[in-house]
Amino acid sequence: MHTDGTISEVLAGEFHDNFRNITAILEHAGTGYDDVVDMKSYHVRFEHTEIFARITDEFVIEPYPARTTISVASLVVREALLETRAAPRIPSTTNRSA
Question: How distant is the alpha carbon of residue 81 from its chain centre?
Answer without folding.
Answer: 13
